[in-house]
TrEMBL record:
Domain (Amidohydrolase-related) ranges: 319-407
InterPro entries tied to this protein: Amidohydro-rel (IPR006680), Metal-dep_hydrolase_composite (IPR011059), Metal_Hydrolase (IPR032466), Metallo-dep_Hydrolase (IPR051781)
Gene3D superfamilies documented for this protein: Metal-dependent hydrolases (3.20.20.140), Urease, subunit C, domain 1 (2.30.40.10)
Keywords: Signal
Coiled coil spans: none
Organism: Brevundimonas intermedia
Region (Disordered): 140-160
Taxonomic placement: Bacteria, Pseudomonadati, Pseudomonadota, Alphaproteobacteria, Caulobacterales
Signal peptide start and end residues: 1-22
GO molecular function (one): hydrolase activity, acting on carbon-nitrogen (but not peptide) bonds
Protein name: Imidazolonepropionase
Amino acid sequence: MRLPHILAGAVAALSLAAPALAQDTVAIVGGRILTGTSVIENGTVVIRDGKIVSVGSGSAPSGARVIDATGKTVAPGFVAVDSGLAGTEVGAVSGTNELRNSANTLSAAFDISYGLDPWSFTLPVARLGGITRAVVVPQHPGSSGGHVHEDETAGAGDGGYQTPGLFAGQTAIINLGQGGDILVKPRVAMVAPFGEAGADIAGGARGAQFVLFKETMAEVRLYARNKSAYERAGLRDLSLSRADLEALIPVANGSMPLIVSVHRASDIQQVLRLAREEGIKLILDGAEEGWLVAGDIAAAGVPVLLNPISNLPADFEMRAARMENAAALNAAGVVIAIKGNEGSTHRAREARYNAGNAVSHGLPYGAAIAALTVNPARIFGMAGQFGQIAPGAAADVVVWSGDPLEPLSQPSAIFIDGVEQPLTSRALLLRDRYRQQTPMPPAYRN
């Protein structure tokens, strides 16, 4: 049984590869700077106390540590959306997955932030793909990609107050800095599946889910107006637990966005209608047929989290999926954020490849960069705090060997909150350990 020792050794190696201490002032000079909203040639980024102090064409301040980025590209750290980073380790090992909850007595109140692991092996790998922040989302039957089993996610269990449950739980924003407290903000959005997945939860028909959703919102508002009566058992029986009712108050009053997984164009239109009727703040997730109703989405001011390489009619919800979806939505004025693959966990780093593919199918280059940086921050209420190279923003900065949307480009320096991160991961450490071992360790000589 050598596996536990190998894992322990890998953990120890990662802990020893601690990030460099933050310098008082760091100046990255001479690079092509992608601020997230513009481009500065031969620019200088100055970092101090975890923040970006200045960006422009000036020289490095006296006494600063200087990083020469001549011939390189300097970009904001990317933001992984609809992600499972730090919430799961091995999809096939249920004990390592904190993203799913099957107890219908606790659905909307499920708070994913309490299960996050700062030492997850998934974080360094994603970080090497330029990702410095992530929006971690509970899994549900309509989740995108990855190892998602409907009988192990919210809305699939038996018994409870509301059977089945409509909501998967609440998301959290994290940073990918090594070690320590990675939680940036908990409970930033609620999650619910619609379309086929939502219909299955509600009994098999889309119409049933919409009616059940509206009744749920009515109960939440009734509870919010009559908490004292609820406390003294003076209110009629409600279908949700108290914890779920409390969690849904911000959704019902429009202060917390609801991430809705939806794919078919007609489902998107009906969800937009539901949001108007109920005063709900929406974020669409998936929207593979969004290009067909891009004008409606734009008119509603609803952002979209999408994978631009979803272009196959995998089922009847995605008959019109196409590679030009991102370009069409952007052209219509929809704010988009580009996702990685298979739940943006083990393949989160591929978000930049997806953005590059979107560019090859009509999305402007600047819009693709924005869809990885400033747009996710804006969508989740963190505009100006990260996702861009601008004075006052968190110093999440990546120096790339070339164009960050080019697969062969690699980071030569990564800063998160102004702290330089190690350019390593468990996979690289294992590669180095066994690539040229002479002699091999004792356990491997036989």
